[in-house]
Amino acid sequence: MDQSLFSGGAWLTNLNGIGSWRAVADVELRRRSDTNKPNSSPQTTIFPALRVPSNCYRQINLLAFDPDDDEVKCRYADLSLTECASPCTPPPVLSLSSTCTLSFSGTSSSNQGWYVVQMVMEDFPRQSITLTHTNGSRVWKTASDAISKIPIQFAFQVAPAAPSCTEGAYLPRFLFPTPEHGTRFYNPVSQTLEINIRADATECVITGLLYSGPHNVVKTSSGSGYFTLTWTPSAREDGQNHPICFVVQAKLL
User: 252 and 215 share a domain?
Assistant: First the structure.
C-alpha cells in the first residue's frame, strides 16, 4: 500500500468551522488475484464549489467509477484515521449515502453560507481476493475490506432561496440529447468523442457550461443552452478511463 498525503491551511471561511485541510490517498500496488494486475483506484471528478438554493431539495449524485468493477462507496473523512485536520465536522445541511449521493433538504435562511465537504471514496471487491506483493507475501481482502481510497473535498454553498424549485423554471434542467448520469462512452485512440448537451430554464437564460475532465477537452456553443464537448484521446491515453462532469449556469431574464 502506498499513501499520499497533502495538507495545508487555507479553506475559505465556512459555517462548519473547517480551517486547515488534510487529504489522504491510499493506492494499492499489489497484484490482484482476480485480474492478475495491480488494483485500479476508484475514479471521480467534481467542481471546487457547488451551490444550491436554501429552499429546495437537491440530490447530488457524485460520479463514481471503478476500472476493476469493484463496489464503490463514499463516507465522510474520519479524524481518527487522520484523513482530515481538526476540526473535521461534516456539513450539518447535507446527508451522505454510502452510494455516493449527497442530499440537501430545504433549510432556513440562517443556514445560508459556505460549508466544507471532506469525503473519502473507497473500492471494495465483489468477492474475496488476495493481493500479492513482489516479494511473494499475500494479503486477503473480503467484500467488506476497502482496497484503496481517494479524498474528495470541495466547498458547498447554501444560496438565497429560489422563487421556485421546479426544474426548468428558475433551476436549469438538462434535455435530450444530454447524456444521463453515469453514461459510459468507449472511444478509439485518435478518434474524436462528441458529447452534445442541451439545457433550458423558462425564467432564466443559460449563460454557460462548466466542466471537469481531461485537460484537452474542448467546449463549443451554438446558442444559449446548446453546448458540445469534444475530446480526442491520444495513444498515451489508450486503455485508460477518464471521468467528465458538467453543470450549466443561468441568470434571471
Answer: yes
